[in-house]
Design a protein that fits this description.
homodimer; six-stranded parallel β-sheet; alpha/beta; DNA-binding
DNA sequence: CTGAAAGCGCTTACAG
DNA sequence: CTGAAAGCGCTTACAG
């Protein structure tokens, strides 16, 4: 910042070549003599040259196209999309554009695979997607990710991961952590002395990790909380509701029920309300669906743990922009967004108004010249 | 994004003048004929011209200097500083630099006034600060803010506001909201049926607003919670402790105590611990001081409401950068950061590791060429 | 394999 | 008050 930045010209002077040659050495395209390259790179290191991406963007006419491949099935995913859009607006000056490729179902990985294949083939050579941001619906999406990577397209996963794929990194929830936070709420509300029930879905890795996190924190920090019984369900609302009803009816000593999915917790909360046990039995929800908010305000659900979907999209896109513009590899493979605790819907709406929008509205193009 | 952006040249062509003249009309400096100006501005609106700040930064040699005037007395303020630094690194390409001017006390507004006056006078004409980000320690700082504004220096307040000053906007906590969230936690933990005590400091406007928010939400959402008694203190730890001890001793029916400052809540938490009443009487803390974290893990404090100091600094600096680079006035006067609920110190540390750093590490200059 | 030159969109002296 | 020209640091054809 303080000192004048070293430019291509400085390197060219020092290495006694033309700036065109330096450019070729640095950007590694076009034929170049190995020895010339070596000398130039040495000067680059010596003088601590960093490319000026302002200048390169100005000259380069290529725009960077990014595709966001994600289901568009509910508010949560739409917040991820919003976040990604905002991040890309931040890079508007650098000619980055985002194209959303939405899926209409979370249960159709085949459809997603097709969408990705199509995205890889679209456009002529100069108009191809430089990067794909994907919320992989299933492990089978890995093959599409690897195919994209093989073609030189950068891939980042968001919200859901494809662990053994060639994606650069993952941005999203840490399921273990959300489980742990819910355990802490249980422990504190129940004053570390109560029996609880666990209703567990095992269909996704992240669901299993939530339960693990929940159990681990209970064991470590709240040994006064005893898990009296465990039941399995499919992650659905209906079964969770039925299980909760029978637990509430048959086991009056149970004072808390944990379910490891959004849908499951909605089922439990509804059961608590229907059995007129709110305030007596606690549930803590995942994410912030409308039904969850209602149950939260009715105190059938004590709190909800939300994972900043907006930030997930925002940072996934920001990482992608940096990869494309600066050829920077992300420093970490796993980028976890914070898990926040919400106790009433007003808190959430107020926060949405501020923190999200403080990141949003600021990014909007607003021009002093034309006043819009 | 899609269409080719309109440039100065396009306007010049349309208005039948040179690009130099268009520049003068748009940037409003240098003599220009009123009629010419009118015609040009009309074309600017018609064609929806937006200046390319990439190009202008490249040509313009001026760097933008921003000063952050803030006490450097604890971790909370240091997070604000970190946030501001990160935002400015984001604008590194645009030749923005941040200079921190720290105060060593929160209780010495005179010293801060001197620091601001000095900052305004430093440097020659071309090297002056373009913007000041200030955490005003007292209403008297208003005069320095107005003086800066009169000299054409942009001012944004952070964390603390100077309401009737000429600052462009405020970025920071919404005290009313934090009070309200704490009320919600009380209401839910106490199952909307209990007597509580309120210990109130009135020394700062924001403290009073916290109490107001607390009382309002209790009244609206938790009518089963009764405020049995109110006491006044100076916002200090010691008095709060003494008051809490006597409340806990004399009024066994009290099941929650609210204090409206960080220090006050630490006093209460300690009293709850000393009187061996943890889990029986609840307190909810402000912010995230180390003592608060300890009391949180001991369950003397049930939760703490934290206000994202990192984001406060980050967004205050980002707004300032936009003001300087794009001559954009902020759309709102008050930018509130979200108030998050923390139930254990592990949650906070994990979140700090992710959400802050997801905003941080990404911004760090990291170069594919030189690998650092 | 390397160099010289044009030009991205803007701002800034310098002439008129 | 207005225009013509140079140049910010880079990339990209185009010659050699």
């Amino acid at each position: 910042m303080a000192d004048k930045r070293v430019t291509l010209k400085d390197i060219a002077l020092a290495a006694n070549v033309s700036i065109g040659t330096v450019d070729r050495a640095v950007n590694g395209k076009g034929r170049i003599n190995a020895e010339t390259q070596r000398v130039i790179m040495q000067k680059v290191h010596e003088l601590n040259y960093r490319p000026n991406k302002i200048a390169s963007t100005l000259r380069r006419h290529k725009a960077y196209k990014i595709a966001l491949v994600i289901p568009d099935t509910n508010h949560f995913f739409r917040l991820i999309i919003d976040g990604a859009k905002k991040a890309c607006e931040d890079f508007d000056d650098y000619a980055v554009s985002l194209h959303v490729i939405p899926q209409d179902s979370e249960e159709n990985p085949q459809g997603q695979l097709r969408d990705i294949a199509q995205a890889m083939d679209c456009g002529d050579v100069s108009d191809k997607y430089g990067g794909l941001i994907i919320a992989p619906l299933h492990a089978s999406v890995t093959q599409a990710i690897n195919e994209a990577a093989a073609r030189g397209i950068q891939v980042v996963t968001v919200n859901m991961d494809a662990k053994d794929s060639a994606r650069m990194c993952y941005v999203g929830q840490d399921p273990w952590r959300t489980g742990g936070i819910i355990a802490s709420v249980f422990g504190k509300f129940l004053n570390n002395a109560a029996e609880i029930a666990v209703i567990e879905a095992k269909g996704r890795v992240s669901w299993q990790q939530r339960t693990e996190g929940f159990m681990d924190v209970l064991e470590k920090d709240f040994q006064g909380i005893r898990v009296a019984c465990m039941f399995e369900y499919q992650g659905d609302r209906r079964t969770a509701y039925d299980l909760a009803i029978s637990i509430l009816r048959d086991r009056p000593q149970i004072r808390g029920i944990f379910a490891n999915t959004t849908e499951g917790t909605i089922g439990i909360g509804t059961a608590i309300l229907d059995m007129n046990r709110k305030g007596k039995v606690i549930a803590v929800s995942y994410d912030t669906p409308p039904e969850g908010m209602k149950l939260l305000d009715d105190n059938a659900i004590v709190a909800t743990v939300t994972q900043n979907p907006f930030l997930q999209g925002y940072h996934a896109a920001k990482i992608m922009c940096r990869i494309l513009l600066e050829r920077v590899l992300p420093e970490k493979t796993m980028w976890y967004t914070s898990a926040d605790l919400i106790v009433n819907s007003r808190q959430l709406s107020l926060n949405a108004e501020s923190v999200n929008h403080i990141g949003c509205e600021l990014m909007q193009p607003f021009c002093a010249v034309c006043q819009r």
